[in-house]
Every structure is written in structure tokens, then in C-alpha cells.
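Please check this today:
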Amino acid sequence: MQVLNQLKIEEPERKECFLEILSDKYCRSILEAIMDTPKSAIEVSREKIIPLSTVYRRIQQLHDSKMIRTSGVITEEGKRLFLYKSKIKEVNTSFHDGKIDVDVVFNKI
């Protein structure tokens, strides 16, 4: 049985950030695309049929919120190519007694 790394987010601002990002259909779609395999923005754009400019904006937002990791490779043509992979595998939220709980399960690296 695999043990998953899990974190309960306590800071109200961080909770709001997670919830705001996850409420965006493009962010959710991008996270889904890069959940298991690192991909470039172009690959995500083609796979999910999202305009490339939108993919880049959302990737920046996901990066700023520390929800994805970025790695780079050099192509055979000598060009730099950035690959993105989700740091999170799942997010669980609950709302009770006027309080929101947000638990994050981290993705395998």
C-alpha cells in the first residue's frame, strides 16, 4: 500500500488561492493533462484544445501558487523546452460550521 503525502492547508489566503484556481475550468484541465506525465504548453494546448496564450497564463498562475513544477530540456534542434507537471494529485475540500477545510494530496515526483 502506497503512503500519500498529504497536507492540510491552514492559512486562509492559501485556501482561497487553491479554491479560486480550482474553480477555473482551464486550470483544472491543465492540471489533469499534466497529472501523470510532464508536458509542454504546446502539448497541453493541443490535447485539451485550449488556446496557447490561455495555457501560458494559467501555467503562470499554477506556478505562482506552487501547484506545478517546471523542468527544462534541450531539443535536438538546440531549443529550450519547458515541461510542466502537477505537484498535486488531489484536493479535498469540506465546508461545515462556516469553516472551509482544504486538504492536498501530493503527486508522485
